[in-house]
TrEMBL record:
It is found in: Cytoplasm. GO terms for molecular function: polyamine oxidase activity. Residues 24-339 form the Amine oxidase domain. This is Peroxisomal N(1)-acetyl-spermine/spermidine oxidase isoform X3. One of its GO terms (biological process) is spermidine catabolic process. It comes from Delphinapterus leucas (Beluga whale). Its cofactor is FAD. One of its GO terms (cellular component) is cytoplasm.
């Protein structure tokens, strides 16, 4: 943020710059600024006691568990996160291989290792593959309307449903199989909601959906934890740059502020913290999450932001993805199993489940990702769900109901999965974040250009 008032900087010193927020965006900005000889007076004001924000790797299960971001999407040379991670030596051999970097996924999530239906029993992998082919061919079609003069539906969700109805007319199987196909498609809708950070694909506008570019490279993870990246960036900063436990209350800008220790010097910006502390500056880089900005827009900037910026903040969506970690005494899955899909029978993307979400939130869980076993300690699993406030993510009744209904039972474990003995929610919906990330494009978005905030 740069104020229009252009006060002179004190001779012999560069401008004072404040970065608000110590997530990867704030740390990245600070790292760049620190390298620049013109910016010697730099502070990063971080609300909490740690840096990294939505990137947080825990060792609660005796190994690395990603509470926030997990994957580098499109890990190839055009991806700055990949480049930085590679430079710091944080990636494994496979992720760094040219072969991995060349893989074109088209942004499609790979097939699960195994799918279970909520009535018990596994679902035919052929049927799952057939529905995935259909779903992703339709998703590919949605990208064709980028500059189209006419669009067949306002949202991605409505377009997909319309097309699915047409395909259904050609389905010749018995009713039971047709219902199962719809339930598999429903799971794929949920996956897409997770990817897009939205509760419903009906909220994602069709016409600009194709603006989102998928980089080549099969998604990869950090063997030692994603947080290694933000830790390394932070370690590269001079010692006194980070100021922790400094939640910013209001950014006064376009003014003329003085500081007792710098008589005669005036600053166009004054950053006021919750604890009463004030930091005058020439420039401020604001990297707080969109969810926080939405909630505090009326008081965070004084004077208020220009209408165009304020409207963009109001209208861009910010969805919630939560993760729940479950730990089992014995794995009940095959050693090579990576991803377990749960297909809830009698669910359908053609029905609006929103009113029932309070009672059936767990039906939005997209699946389980098996985490590696940590030496002697038990192997935990991770699962992720979309648009579920953490308070609604207790281990009872939803996850126990998953067990109770038997669809996770005994494959190939001795007598079914042992009770989950640990869990952990993600801090995403906390007071300094208010969500997880933004959908690619939101319906009724004020401007035509798409914005995606992943990776800051
Ligand atoms: C569960 C989950 C899974 C995800 N998975 C992936 C993934 O696999 N791959 C991927 O690329 N991305 C993923 N993301 C998104 C990714 O984590 C974020 O896009 C990225 O970390 C955002 O970085 P940031 O610096 O912009 O914001 P943040 O990391 O949110 O940092 C903002 C910082 O600002 C601080 N702050 C807030 N308010 C104030 C204030 N008033 N004063 C001072 N400081 C303040 C916060 O404490 C925080 O440290 C995921 C996110 C979540 C929540």
């Amino acid at each position: 943020m740069q104020s229009s008032g252009r006060q002179a900087e004190a001779p012999g010193r560069g401008p004072r710059v404040l970065v608000v927020g110590g997530g990867i965006a704030g740390l990245g900005a600070a790292q760049r600024l620190c390298c620049h000889p013109a910016f010697p007076h730099l502070r990063v004001l971080e609300a909490t006691a740690r840096a990294g924000g939505r990137i947080r790797s825990e060792r609660s299960f005796g190994g690395v568990v990603e509470v926030g971001a997990h994957w580098i999407h499109g890990p190839s040379q055009g991806n700055p996160v990949f480049q930085l991670a590679a430079k710091y030596g944080l990636l494994g051999e496979k992720a760094l291989s040219e072969e991995n970097q060349l893989i074109e996924t088209g942004g499609h999530v790979g097939l699960p290792s195994v799918s279970y239906a909520s009535s018990g029993g596994s679902v035919s992998p052929e049927l799952v593959a057939e529905m995935a082919r259909l779903f992703y061919s339709l998703i590919d079609q949605t990208r064709e309307f980028l500059h189209a003069a006419e669009i067949p539906a306002p949202s991605v969700g409505e377009y997909l449903k319309k097309e699915i109805r047409q395909h259904m007319a050609g389905w010749t199987e018995e009713e039971e199989t047709k219902r199962l196909k719809l339930a598999i498609l429903n799971n794929l809708f949920n996956v897409e909601c997770c990817v897009s950070g939205t509760h419903s694909m009906d909220l994602v506008a069709l016409s600009p959906f194709g603006e989102y570019t998928v980089l080549p490279g099969l998604d990869c993870t950090f063997p030692g934890g994603y947080q290694g990246l933000t830790d390394r960036i932070m370690a590269s900063l001079p010692k006194d740059v980070m100021v922790f436990n400094k939640p910013v209350k209001t950014i006064h800008w376009d003014g003329s502020f003085e500081e007792a220790s710098a008589p005669g010097e005036t600053f166009p910006v004054l950053v006021e913290c919750e604890d009463g502390g004030c930091f005058p500056a020439h420039h401020v880089v604001v990297t707080v999450p969109l969810g926080f900005l939405k909630e505090r827009l009326d008081t965070f900037f004084e004077p208020p932001l220009p209408t165009e910026k304020a409207e963009a903040i109001r209208k861009i969506g910010f969805g919630t993805n939560n993760k729940i970690f479950l730990e089992f005494e014995e794995p009940f899955w095959q050693p090579d199993c990576q991803h377990i899909q749960v297909v809830w029978r009698d669910t359908s993307p053609l029905e609006d489940t929103a009113p029932k979400l309070q009672d059936a939130w767990f039906k939005k869980l997209v699946g389980f990702w098996v985490l590696p076993s940590f030496g002697e300690s038990p192997a935990p699993r991770a699962q992720e769900c979309a648009e579920v406030p953490l308070a609604q993510c207790p281990i009872h009744p939803g996850l126990l109901q998953l067990r109770g209904r038997g669809q996770l039972r005994g494959r190939p474990g001795p007598a079914g999965p042992a009770p989950p003995c640990g869990r952990q929610g993600c801090p995403a919906p906390g007071p300094v974040c208010r969500g997880s990330h933004t959908p690619d494009v939101l319906l009724h978005h004020a401007r035509s250009s798409a914005v995606r905030l992943e990776g800051g």
